[in-house]
Design goal:
InterPro entries: ANF_lig-bd_rcpt, Glu/Gly-bd, Iono_Glu_rcpt_met, Ionotropic_Glu_rcpt, Iontro_rcpt_C, Peripla_BP_I. Keywords: Cell membrane, Glycoprotein, Ion channel, Ion transport, Ligand-gated ion channel, Membrane, Postsynaptic cell membrane, Receptor, Synapse, Transmembrane, Transmembrane helix, Transport. Residues 367-429 form the Ionotropic glutamate receptor L-glutamate and glycine-binding domain. The structure is a single chain. By secondary structure, the protein is of the alpha/beta class. It folds into five domains: 8-64 and 230-301, Rossmann fold (3-Layer(aba) Sandwich), CATH 3.40.50; 66-205 and 312-342, Rossmann fold, CATH 3.40.50; 357-456, Periplasmic binding protein-like II (D-Maltodextrin-Binding Protein, domain 2, 3-Layer(aba) Sandwich); 475-511 and 520-577, Helix Hairpins (Orthogonal Bundle); 588-664, D-Maltodextrin-Binding Protein, domain 2. It has 22 helices and 25 strands. A hairpin with a 2-residue loop joins strand 11 and strand 12. Helix 2 (67-78) packs parallel to helix 3 (97-105) and helix 6 (151-163) packs parallel to helix 7. 28% of the residues are buried.
Length: 672
């Protein structure tokens, strides 16, 4: 504080948080608090002290404990009337007060039992203190149990219960912990004897790397944002919220600078009684509370009574029939906005869909969905790759379907009012049960509908019209520059004149020495130039080179013509090859730099939204996507972009100077 402070971000336990809250409230310092739970057990809410004047400067970046709400939902779904809750000695039982009150109002019979660190002693004491009939009643109580323990403690507890024959095959236990790894889940499932249900906190996964690594104009290291790296899963939940808290502050500082409402940093001295609180603290706190980011933990804001309310849980488990093969599957999810998403009832889909007629929405796009037959007055018949997949599913599961085309001809994108159009909108509006189309899987779409596994992948492609081959009679001159051809043309008469002069000199010397003329050879200038040209085109000549000087000149000329002809042949082959492979646009950078061709994509598609996100990001260092978005979105996308892929292809074949950018990852999708 002496050096200057704008906000405080801490990751501590509850005791330290209370002391820091008193300090920040007194000095008016915005305080982002992340509750840390180092023992691995379930987290309980921190009981922070109320502020004296009602103005709390502490914001809870980690959402409040909602395990109790999830447990109450599960108990209602499972129709449990009587069960027992086991908790470790380190667990703060006050965290169960709200749950017990709600369970009591619902008429549920709930028991609590603390489990000491020495788990084996717990079961030994049970056998020493209970009679046989009491043990049988206790074994019956253990058929429905909730475990609020660390992963290691739960594994030991389950192992001891199985060893002592207190756990039965018809038992159903629920393990609840915000932080539990995949390895710990497998250990728990394999240790249990009956059915096991796991509740843990999860965060939204972003499949598209470019989108996943961007959070509110902030680029995240691929080590953190890419699930394939494996580093993200190894981090504690508190560290993820710590990262997002700093990101939230950066976002608030950016908006302060943008609005020109920046405050000087607080320079405070806690040891002086005359120290006054920071006068800019409330304004900075208000800016932070009005912000919203999307980080490693998903959405984060402080609009719900000074705490981040966005939290999502995953419910995993096994069924009675699956317990023997220890198969773990995702049963449902729970979030703070919609509650339970999915059903926990046990039913096999193979038998549950026999004879059911599903209403299926689709969008035409070759070769995935096409009209096979269109007879007037009868329903359309469809064919294609996606239809083949649908027919195979219908045959396996025994359902029937009625298929129709989406009215607006779009796959689906979020509208400003929060609703969706296209295929996604049909599913959300429950006008269709299933969608079959060549649709791209995006994080935004996955947040509202469920997708199948991808059965086909396409990367982003740039589709251009093939250039027409132009015939040029002067293309044979292309391997050499004009200056080179001029030098060659000048060299032929120059060397011819030299040959002419040397032959005349040879003739004069021969006549003066012998008194006889030289052998019959033409000594005219035209014949000399013809000899030089014949040598250049490698046709030879019938000349007689008597003198050494003539042989030196002609030998040098032959060497020169050999080099020139070899170079010409090599350059001509390279020129003809490159001209066939010439493509000026190979990347998005090439596309943004050229101005001759217009380009676009399908409006409201995944690629369109990708360009929007990247092109409107002020922190994007590369201006490539800003230029791309400017052209793609010209006149709100109506100038260069198209309404459907088929329209884009028609534009290409029609000769319009438009480049079409597309991407597809086909999958089946349905509303959960």
């Amino acid at each position: 504080m002496n050096q200057g402070i704008l906000a405080l971000v801490t990751s501590t336990g509850c005791a330290a948080a209370s002391a820091l809250q008193s300090l920040t409230d007194a000095m008016h310092i915005p305080h982002l608090f992340i509750q840390r739970n180092g023992d691995g057990g379930p987290r309980t809410a921190c009981q922070l002290n109320p502020s004296p004047d009602g103005e709390s400067y502490t914001l809870a970046a980690r959402p409040p404990v909602r395990i109790n709400d999830v447990l109450l939902t599960l108990v209602s779904e499972f129709h449990w009337q009587k069960f027992i809750i086991f908790y470790e000695s380190d667990y703060d039982i006050r965290g169960l007060q709200t749950f017990m009150d709600q369970a009591s109002r619902l008429g549920l019979d709930v028991s609590l039992q603390r489990v000491d660190r020495n788990v084996s002693r717990v079961f030994t004491d049970l056998f020493n203190t209970m009679r046989t009939e009491e043990l049988n009643r206790y074994r019956d109580t253990l058929r429905r149990a909730v475990l609020l323990m660390s992963p290691r403690g739960a594994q030991v507890f389950i192992h001891q219960a199985v060893e002592t024959n207190l756990a039965s095959k018809d038992s159903h236990w629920v393990y609840a912990n915000e932080e539990v790894s995949d390895a710990d889940i497998m250990e728990l499932i394999h240790s249990s004897l009956g059915r096991m249900t796991i509740i843990r906190q999860v965060f939204p996964l972003w499949r598209d790397t470019n989108v996943r690594c961007m959070r509110n104009n902030h680029r995240i290291s691929s080590l953190l944002c890419d699930p394939q790296e494996g580093y993200l899963q190894s981090l504690e939940v508190s560290n993820l919220y710590l990262y997002d808290s700093v990101l939230m502050l950066a976002n608030a500082f950016y908006r302060k600078l943008e609005d020109r409402k920046w405050h000087s940093m607080a320079s405070l001295n806690c040891m002086r009684k005359s120290t006054k609180p920071w006068n800019g603290g409330w304004s900075m706190l208000d800016t932070i509370q009005k912000g919203r980011i999307s980080g490693l933990t998903g959405l984060m804001d402080f609009r719900a009574e000074g705490s981040n309310s966005h939290v999502q849980f995953e419910i995993l488990g096994t069924s009675y029939s699956d317990a023997f093969v220890k198969d773990v599957k995702r049963l449902a999810s729970w979030d703070s906005t919609r509650g339970l998403n999915g059903s926990l009832k046990e039913n096999r889909i193979e038998s549950g869909m026999q004879g059911v007629t599903l209403k299926i929405v689709t969008l035409l796009e070759e070769p995935f969905v096409m009209v096979a037959e269109n007879i007037l007055g009868q329903p359309k018949r469809y064919k294609g790759f996606s239809i083949d997949v649908l027919d195979a599913l219908a045959k396996i599961l025994g359902f029937k379907y009625d298929i129709y085309q989406v009215g607006d001809g779009k796959y689906g994108s979020a509208l400003p009012n929060g609703s969706w159009n296209g295929v996604i909108g049909e599913l959300i509006g429950k006008r269709a049960d299933l969608a079959v189309s060549a649709i791209t899987i995006t994080p935004e779409r996955e947040s509202v509908v469920d997708f199948s596994k991808r059965y086909l992948d396409y990367s982003v492609g740039i589709l251009t019209r093939k250039s027409e081959d132009k015939i040029n009679i002067f293309s044979l001159l292309a391997p050499f520059d004009l200056a080179v051809w001029a030098c060659i043309a000048a060299a032929i008469p120059v060397v011819g004149i030299m040959i002419f002069l040397l032959r005349r000199i040879q003739a004069v010397r021969c006549h003066s020495n012998t008194g006889h003329p030289p052998p019959s050879t033409s000594t005219s200038l035209q014949s000399a130039i013809w000899i030089v040209y014949g040598a250049f085109v490698q046709q030879g000549s019938d000349s007689i080179l008597g003198s050494v000087a003539l042989r030196i000149v002609m030998g040098s000329w032959w060497l020169f013509t050999l080099i020139v002809c070899s170079s010409y042949t090599a350059n001509l082959a390279a020129y003809l090859t490159v001209s066939r492979m010439d493509n000026a646009i190979r990347s998005f950078q090439d596309l943004s730099k050229q101005v001759d061709l217009a380009y676009g994509t399908v409006r409201d598609s995944a690629v369109y939204e990708y360009f929007r996100a990247k092109g409107t990001n002020p922190l994007e260092q590369d201006s490539t996507f800003a230029e791309l978005w400017k052209v793609v979105n010209k006149n709100n996308g109506f100038d260069n972009s198209v309404s459907s892929p088929s329209e884009g292809i028609k534009k290409l074949f029609a000769g319009d100077t438009v480049i079409y950018v597309s991407e597809k990852k086909p999958a089946l999708q349905c509303k959960a």
